[in-house]
Write a structure and sequence with these properties.
β6 and β7 form a beta hairpin. This protein is α+β, with helices and mostly antiparallel strands. The protein contains 2 helices and 7 strands. Strands 1, 2, 3, 4, 5, 6 and 7 form a 7-stranded mixed beta sheet that branches. The chain has one domain: Nuclear Transport Factor 2, Chain: A (Roll), CATH 3.10.450.50. The longest helix has 23 residues.
């Protein structure tokens, strides 16, 4: 399959966008998420027990919820992208894996609990005047371990 330079560039930008999402979440850089999502994006964290809603609502929920964890790691990979040229050159969809260990803040020196989630992210992307952004993110749970 021959790919154009523009398609290769789009795919690279989408991969960077997904990585930037994971980096912002783990760094608790909620302002940085504004450069990841469209303002009207719809996000669903229901597969891991969270809410679904519009981006501003979910951004506020993330800012409130993530501080209960001492640390998190969103390891994303295997991004499969479909550039939807049939609907226009500015739309794409994707699916990627996420391995997400999350350490709760310990209640004592010996009491460190780490939760493990294996997730899929189903994504819709939109090219905006500021570049590619995620317009939809939906989790699908593959597995979990040690979740209270």
């Amino acid at each position: 399959m021959t790919r154009t330079q523009a398609e290769l560039s789009d795919r690279w930008e989408l991969q960077d966008l997904v990585t930037h999402y994971a980096t912002c979440i783990d760094a608790r850089d909620f302002d940085g998420l504004d450069s990841v999502f469209t303002p009207d994006a719809h996000l669903s964290y229901e597969a891991s027990g969270g809410p679904a809603g519009d981006y501003p609502t979910i951004r506020a929920w993330l800012a409130e919820t993530l501080p209960i964890f001492a640390s998190t790691q969103h390891l994303v990979g295997n991004l499969a992208v479909r550039l939807d040229h049939a609907t226009g050159p500015d739309d794409a969809t994707g699916r990627c894996m996420c391995f997400n260990p999350m350490a709760l803040k310990p209640t004592s020196e010996k009491d460190q609990q780490v939760l493990f989630y294996g997730l899929w992210y189903d994504l819709a992307f939109e090219r905006t005047s500021a570049g590619w952004r995620i317009s939809r993110l939906t989790q699908e749970q593959a597995f979990h371990h040690n979740v209270p």
